[in-house]
């Protein structure tokens, strides 16, 4: 009988327990993530300058649970795999039966560089032919395993005048802050957490906040001219990009990692940041009654005002 290497934390169960260091759990399986942003008026939980976000990892169906266990069984046998992590909605207890099962497989950087394509092909074959994964796909239209190989190396990606927000903070947060380790070996996962949690260095943070604000303001300030020229779809696109950059800057200003900029926005703003009043204002930005009018320019003014209140004045 083959004995698996490393430490199986017992997390391939319906109700997940665990987390270390910046994340702690109780007997109910609820997880508390310590977020080092400054306290915000109206936050549900405050501890000096620390915000605590509690979430409860859970699988929505037994098929999701069995698929996760099968993934762990497969990859824990491979010496170059350092951890298997449950991520996204299942990790935070937000998944539905039709949700995909998001898994990140942490491998050594040199392995991903030299053998990434081979790993991908082997996984594609297993995912297509293994009965456990086939059963999961039968649960719902989108219920499948969404698996990514990652090397744990984080660097700021491309962010330019028209790109919208980049994924630097998203990548760190979803892999290290909002994930559940199902299996690990060698201690590299903990070293990555020690390096990047609760947040990255202050010099880089200020540099990135200035950059995101510069690009966000550029998007907002382009909108009135586009509206005057009747370029309403471009105006809306600029508003959408500025909205994403507002969220990115909001989290950077509070030294908290985000989950997404186009999904789970209510969870992020209300539950993680503890700012329900702000969420209501953000949702109202996209309540546009007459598309070909000056409304988009008016929404841009509102977002710029929110930017000043919640980002520029806070940092």
Q: What is the element layout, followed by pairings?
A:
Blueprint: E1 7-8, E2 23-25, E3 31-35, E4 51-55, H1 62-75, E5 81-86, H2 88-91, E6 101-107, H3 109-129, H4 131-137, E7 145-150, H5 168-177, E8 180-184, H6 188-196, H7 202-228, H8 232-253, H9 265-272, H10 276-284, H11 295-312
Parallel strand pairs: 6-7
Antiparallel strand pairs: 1-8, 2-3, 3-4, 5-6, 5-8
Helix pairs in contact: 1-4, 7-8, 7-11, 8-11, 9-10
Notes on the structure:
- With 315 residues, this protein is α+β, with helices and mostly antiparallel strands.
- It contains 11 helices and 8 strands.
- The strands form 2 sheets. The chain has a 5-stranded mixed beta sheet with strand order 1-8-5-6-7.
- α7 runs antiparallel to α11 (295-312) and α8 (232-253) packs parallel to α11.
- The N and C termini lie far apart (57 Å).
Would you tell me the overall average pLDDT? Answer: 88
Count of domain modules = 2
Give the beta-strand count.
8
Largest sheet: 5 strands, mixed
- First and last CA, distance: 57 Å
What is the strand content? 5-15%
Structural Rg: 21 Å
In terms of structural class, how would the helical and strand content be classed? alpha+beta
Uncertain residue segments: 1-5, 7-28, 36-49
